Amino acid sequence: MDISGLITHEGVTHCAWRTSAAEYRDYHDHEWGVPVADDIQLFEKICLEGFQAGMAWITILRKRENFRRAFEGFDYHRVAQYTEEDIQRLMADPGIVRNRAKIVSVINNARRARELVEETGSLAAWMWSFEPAADERPAVVDLAYWTANPTSVASIRLSRALKKRGWTFVGPTTMYALMQAMGMVNDHLDGCICRQHIEELRRQFKRP
User: Fold this and answer.
1) Three-state DSSP class for 132?
2) Which pLDDT belongs to residue 3?
3) Given pLDDT bands bounded at 50, 70 and 90, which one contains residue 149?
4) Any idea which of 58-62, 139-143, 168-172 has the lowest mean pLDDT?
5) Residues belonging to the active site
6) What is the pLDDT of residue 5?
7) Any known ligand binding at 15?
8) Residue 142 has pLDDT above 90, yes or no
9) What kind and span of H or E run contains 120?
10) What pLDDT, in 10s, does the model give residues 80-118?
């Protein structure tokens, strides 16, 4: 990895973090930055970003299938009904991150998600309303920008709005990571082969 944050392998240039672990390749190439409009998928991403707080994302990525099994596919309708018995079940599950505060947060956020959908009709539509305006983003995304901006004006707004509604583990940095993951921003570095592909997907994407 050089100071640009890019790496070229067999004539193809990618964000350098793609090569730091085998699991990152598929995630970088086919998922990270792809726009998402499904409520359940978005709820999963919110929860996994919350679990990642203070940890390496690769740890969460390697445990993702276990998380999905443990939380019933992150169906927030089901998770919202979890009780103390479910918390104890999850705390005994070695396949996930056994952090009680984060587990309780997922259950709390499922209830808040259910409330939000009952009020507005769509978690996705509400989330996408926080998409940053074009003038809030640089034309070129490079490593220096990434390093200097772990949050954004939009992620701060989103964090504050969620906290006001009672959500937890949704700080501005976590919400910026969510915005990257769900395609609300395109932070594939300038020069990465995926950047233009994601831009095209974002251009074609019908905001909910």
Assistant:
1) coil
2) 55
3) confident
4) 139-143
5) 27, 49, 57
6) 92
7) yes
8) no
9) helix 100-120
10) 999 999 999 999 999 999 999 999 999 999 999 999 999
What is the dihedral sign for C-alpha 78, 80, 85, 90?
positive
Residue 2 predicted with pLDDT over 70? no
Is 6-204 CATH 1.10.340.30? yes
Find tokens 């587990």 and name the residue.
Answer: 103
192 assigned binding-site residue: yes
| DSSP class per residue in 57-114 | HHHHHHTHHHHHHHTGGG-HHHHTT--HHHHHHHHT-TTS---HHHHHHHHHHHHHHH
**Length in residues, the chain:** 208
- Residue among 111, 103, 99 nearest 85 (CA): 103
Residue 188 in marked binding region? yes
What is the largest distance, in Å, between two alpha-carbon atoms of the chain? 53
Closest CA to 32 of 156, 169, 206, 185: 185
Residue 146 has pLDDT above 90, yes or no: no
Contacts of 24 (CB under 8 A, 6+ apart): 17, 18, 58, 61
